[in-house]
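Appendix B: complex inputs.
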Amino acid sequence: MTLRALLARLTPQRTIRPTRDGWWCLGAAVGLGFAAVNTGNNLLYLLASLLLALIVVSGMLSEQSIRRLRVRASLPGEIHAGRPALLGARVTNLKRRLPSYSVALEAGEQRMYIARLAAGAERLVTWEATFARRGRQRLPGMRLVTRFPFGLFLKAGRVILDDEVIVFPAVRPLDAAWRRRLAAGGTRSLRRRGRGSDLYNLREYRAGDDHRMIHWRSSAKTGTLTVREMEAETATSTRIVLVGEGRRDPARLEVALSEAASLAVDLLAGGAAVELIGPGLHVGPGRGRSHQLRLLTALALYDPATAAASPVRRTPGLSEIEVSLA
Amino acid sequence: MTPFESRALTAAIYLLVVDGIAALYLGGLFGLAGFLALLALVAGSLWQESLRRVVAPVPGLGPVLVGVAGGALVVEIVTAATGMLDVFVHLLIFLLLVKLYTLRTLRDARDVTFLSFFMLVAASPVTTSMVFLGLFVTFLVVGTWLLMLRHLMYEADIVAGPTGRIGKEVLRLALAASAVTVAVTALLFLLIPRVGQAALPLRSQSSRIIAGFTEHVQLGAFGEIEADTSMVMRVRLASLSGADGPPEQLPMLRWRGIAFDHFDGRTWTVSRSTLKLTLRRDRPVPFPVHRYYGGPVLTQEIYLEPIDSQMIFGAPRMLQLDTRSEFATIDDLGNVAVPLATARAQYTVESEPELGDPRQADIADARLPHDPRWEARYTQLPAISPRIRALAREITAGSRDPYDAGRRLSTWLGREIAYTRVLERPATDDPLEDFLFVRRSGNCEYFAASLAVMLRSLAIPARVVNGFQRGEWNPYGRYFMVRLRDAHSWVEVFVDGAGWVTLDPSPRAGIETVAAQPPALMWLDSMRVSWYRYVVSFSLHDQLAVVETVRRSTWDWSATALEPWTWRRGAKLGAGLVLAVGLGLMLGWRRHRAAAARASMPSFYARALRLLARRGVVPRAGETARELMRRAAGAAWAAPLVPITAAYERVRFGDLALDPDEMATVEAALATLTLAVRTKGP
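Resulting structure:
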């Protein structure tokens, strides 16, 4: 155990706030104490002591409930601006014998309640969060809170999981115009199912199939609904070039970066190698998921204020597609 | 809300309500009829759903009913309430009934809890009964349970989820929390600073008017009460200094109340010429009562029930009195009175008990005053029969001194006259002549009066004293329980050099056989006294006494520690202590590390290791889980160990929780492993 951990354990930073019931209890204790002092009646002292003892015991039990609970974030691999992301946290009760009762995780407006967490047990809680903007952003943070045992006080632990995350630009399906532009760059057939233009196979209709893919002639001939399966195509390796710096129109910049991200994701999904060039940024050609993360990170962190055009050596043999940042 | 939780909540609410109503009844805030009527109304609210079905369809009927009840309350308060406490209680009951008949939400449950609590508050200024402790503890346990249950249900309602089937667990938790709350309450009760004496109840308890303890007492006044077993007072003997043996075994122990100096043939009175002095104290120091003659001192704590008498009782000769009263009246008969107490009174007296032969004493302050008025006062007699004078002379013929004469008379009375509680109408006009020569039987008053009259007829100063015999010893609380039947009369005779000395001619103690209380009742009575002593009348003085005891103990300890021979012992002790603390820290650290290792190990794998350990398979130092699995290859438990190890690696190193399917697989493997381990074989 490090010194810091020891100090954190010895001085757990808690905030305690009375609930409405708690204020009533405190008020009654003060009133009774006042009456007891004025009258000298020991039974009033006894009842005032009871209320104060309830407050003390409430503090002890709530601390017992909230202590030694470990919370670890469980974040999705990619978070895109404007899209709900499923965030999660694993709550583990590190106590050896005692369960924790009635704890909740509060993340902004969200509240996830755990009625009981046995000693040594773990619980995964999830919630949705939407980040409006791309870029480096801080998670809203969360706190372990409890009103246990009497609902008189709200005890909260330190704010945790307020780490930084990189929010990628929004990725949307490409519209027809972009598809045409990609097609103009040339494609190559792959001998597997996909979204290309050549027919790969005909098969029986299954629930969820796109109605537009129904092959009516075959369906009429066989008497059962039959759908087309298309052959996958891959675009030829492509260089996405960001044109302009996007200083004039921030809204346009965001749309353009979103288009660039969508293009990159689509191309990579099709098996193509993708290179990204723009003002002050260059990601060399590559494929696969790690390359996609590099591209999306570069787009997420693009800042027109610090962007400066610099000469880049372009990799030969790549078709090129421009996205205007304006 | 599960059915169990719903039932538990209802039960807790109604238990609290009954507890609160019982507290009001205990405080005498309403009679038995009111108590039963209120219980019936409370019970009726259990069927509020049926009532609501009748009331709800009629628009405005509900508010009208509440309004009518509210109006009735106002009328009742205006016409019948005798004080603010009554108004408060009636308002509480009204609000409680409204809440019970409209109970719907968890917030209502909270309100009922508060109202029940304030019923206890309302009862607290008007009761000192130990039953209050029972009601208090009941409230504490049930209230804790209710608050916990309500909180969990409230939270579950917010997230619209289950409470996790912990309803029954809450009861156990509430009991544990209640135990802690009781301990903390007791501690706070002791520590919260008091500002003076504890207060008496606002309302007086019903006190009995008892004959025999006023300034005019007719012969035979004790006749009725000598068969009454009502408790009058409890006397705890706090200390005895200057004498050996336990204080409860002191001879002639009795509780002196009032002495009389004037007799008119039928009635003993305190004469008008008695010098009375009313003392007022500004500081909390005891009232001085009698001069100290240098003998042993007995300290008594007395808890006196309300008996409609201002007299202070204590062992004779009372030296000083400590009571909550600011005034005390002391007269030259040694009588002490304080303003009439409306409730049980507690006071402490210090007395100098009479020990040994008084004729051996030679106290300058106790010399016979050569004052004709004084002698006339204590030898005053009405016109009495010459037969009584003649009898006195005959019995005391040859006596060496007045005390000897008194003892001879006392012995004669005890031997020749029969003691009886059955008093018949005197056959003659002179009750004493009738007692001595006709009936030759009577109670202690007749014995005492006869002795005093015969002494006075011989010109020996004497007076009659009314008080109580010592009573029944309670070994649990170590005090005397004094009842009305212990009321007693005796005589004080003046002995030159020793002062007023007690003579008791009544043979009562040897005749009466009093059945001892059963131990359970004795124990209960001692609890009652403890409750009164340590809770009801706990005061600043007691707090200071506790602090003083702690301070003195600390001082004694530090003084002992400074003695040279204890230094060496202290050094050894310190070294031992350091060693023990070091050892404890080391063990604690190892335990902590082991606990940390266990905490990082999933429970299912720890269970698997425990199972394997039964067959002697334990991980070697530095051996990984996978190596252990390989080592077990070929054994009967090798197969189930594979999925368990895989799950362990996933949880331990992949930092991933198992989903329900994986958990089921692990559980199945554990079951197989258990079977394999238990089966005999390699």
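The longest helix of chain B spans residues 564-600.
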